[in-house]
């Protein structure tokens, strides 16, 4: 897994590539907690290059979402590959997370 | 091919889960499963091995565990052996999927793709989890592609 | 990580060489090798295992062989064990690369990336080939990416 | 490994995808021997989707080339990915096989 943090139109974007599993999700968690600590109002997660996610990766995002909801922050998922999306929908989390096709969609809709 | 066994032993560190995933995906492919099923089986075995590290070994990364893959005529069997204390089977249940909280998904991922999920009670020390998926093979020679 | 061992046993059928390749590539990656080196190590271990099937077992696909990967502080070791007759070490030589004919490349692929290539003479029955590659690690935490 | 045989401007093209190893090279060999049996004058091998080749795959091509040379047939390699090309050049076979960037190059140069 690799994480790259950028900003798009002034909004934070966390782009992940590779495999999110029990080995790598602690690093993802550290980043999410930092954004929560800073009370980031909107955080976009770019999934385009994610090749794998397991339940520890999902748990990390559930924890992150809950942390952001406390202060009214928004977490938006972008460009989820089909096989990753399938996992979210099986876990009934496609209704919990806000999911968009692109960063543009996430910002303007 | 029928009866073929592949076995692997790795340290109980999450760093090696990717090794197990790779083998699992290859074995599922050799069995002739389609890509979506291969992906589900890979996730399921990863979850079962993560549980060994997390629950059986309570995060101790200095142990080892083994995974044995067996391809039978009509089923694909995955057996995971650890040397941890006996699992309390009464806890072995995923969360309600509508109860949104971190955790509790692994068992669901395992059970959706494997037809049988059972701890082997005959094992004296440690745990042996046996996962079985029935195979419905149209084309025995798929792996030869 | 130092001292970690991963071991795998597979049937002596070429169908399972891809499993060995996957594990090899992952282990080389975990050691922090760059992609080009990972690819060379993968090819080398594949060639060594192909030779077990082809030469030690003379194509018999009903045997098994084992591969053990060991990550040490400064080296990556791969040990391949078979139960075939003792290899005639005098034959163990690739062809002259300028002598263009099928075959004879495997040993070259192994020797270009591994610093040591040696059969363990202490082994009583079967063969044990030990391959060692020195590690020059800039960044111990590469695998954590 | 998957093999697809097509024709381009009347010439046979054998496109390989995936891994060519000791398990799959016998199938490749069967195809090459068929072309040799038919005395195919020019055979293009499209490597674009090849992700791996080992010495048994290379041996198969050396055997194929020798078989075609007997009757003056031509074997041309096309679109070899960098990591596959590196293996041919280490084995000094980039001087033995005719290698082209594209099918167009192979046909018109
Ligand atoms: N290998 C195991 N050994 C002991 N207990 C286990 C094992 N696997 C699962 N469990 C129990 O089953 C529960 C549900 O597992 P799972 O669905 O994977 O969710 P999680 O691991 O996130 O809690 C765990 O919380 C644990 O109590
Ligand atoms: N594991 C082995 N057991 C016995 N002999 C071997 C083994 N590996 C290699 N050899 C010998 O070394 C020679 C060169 O091997 P290699 O370079 O892989 O080429 P090839 O296998 O194509 O002949 C082989 O022809 C064989 O005689």
List its traits.
heterotetramer; A: 109 residues; alpha/beta; Transcription Regulator spoIIAA; 5-stranded mixed sheet; 4 helices; 40% helix; 34% strand; B: 145 residues; alpha+beta; Heat Shock Protein 90; 5-stranded antiparallel sheet; 3 helices; 5 strands; 24% strand; binds adenosine-5'-diphosphate
Could you provide a short overview of the structure?
The complex is a heterotetramer, with two copies of chain A (109 residues) and two copies of chain B (145 residues). Chain A is globular, with a radius of gyration of 13 Å. Chain A has helices at residues 25-37, 55-70, 82-90, 103-108; strands at residues 2-8, 11-20, 42-53, 74-78, 98-100.
What does it look like?
The complex is a heterotetramer, with 2 copies of chain A (109 residues) and 2 copies of chain B (145 residues). Chain A is α/β, with parallel strands linked by helices and 109 residues long. Chain A contains 4 helices and 5 strands, in the order ββαβαβαβα. The longest helix of chain A is centred in the middle third of the chain and has 16 residues, at 55-70. Chain B has a single domain (4-92, 101-143), classed as 2-Layer Sandwich (Heat Shock Protein 90), CATH 3.30.565.10. Chain B contains 3 helices and 5 strands, in the order βααββαββ. In chain B, α2 (35-56) crosses α3 (106-113). Residues 140-145 of chain B have low confidence and may be disordered. Chains in contact: A-B, A-C, B-C, B-D, C-D. Chains A and B meet through α2 and α3 of A and α1, α2 and α3 of B. β1 (5-11) of chain B pairs antiparallel with β1 (5-11) of chain C, so a sheet runs across the interface. One adenosine-5'-diphosphate (ADP) is lined by residues 47, 51-52, 54-56, 87, 91-92, 94, 103-107 of chain C. One adenosine-5'-diphosphate binds next to α2 and α3 of chain C.
């Amino acid at each position: 897994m690799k994480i790259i943090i950028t900003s798009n139109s002034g909004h934070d974007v966390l782009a992940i590539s590779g495999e999110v599993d029990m080995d790598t999700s602690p690093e993802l968690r550290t980043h999410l907690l930092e954004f929560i600590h800073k009370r980031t109002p909107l955080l976009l997660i770019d999934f385009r290059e994610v090749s794998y996610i397991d339940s520890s990766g999902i748990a990390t995002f559930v924890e992150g979402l809950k942390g952001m909801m406390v202060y009214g922050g928004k977490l938006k998922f972008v460009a989820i590959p089909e096989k990753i999306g399938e996992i979210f929908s099986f876990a009934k989390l496609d209704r919990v997370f806000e999911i968009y096709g692109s960063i543009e969609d996430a910002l303007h809709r | 091919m029928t009866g073929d066994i592949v076995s692997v032993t790795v340290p109980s560190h999450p760093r090696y889960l990717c090794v197990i995933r790779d083998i699992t995906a290859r074995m599922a492919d050799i069995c002739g499963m389609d890509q979506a099923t291969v992906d589900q089986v890979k996730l399921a075995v990863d979850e079962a091995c993560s549980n060994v590290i997390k629950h059986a070994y309570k995060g101790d990364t200095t142990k080892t565990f083994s995974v044995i893959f067996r391809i039978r005529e009509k089923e694909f069997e995955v057996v995971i052996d650890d040397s941890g204390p006996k699992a309390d089977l009464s806890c072995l249940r995923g969360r309600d999927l509508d109860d949104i909280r971190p955790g509790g998904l692994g068992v669901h991922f395992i059970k959706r793709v494997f037809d049988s999920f059972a701890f082997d009670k005959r094992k004296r020390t440690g745990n042996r989890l046996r996962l079985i998926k029935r195979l419905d093979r149209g084309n025995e020679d798929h792996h030869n592609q």
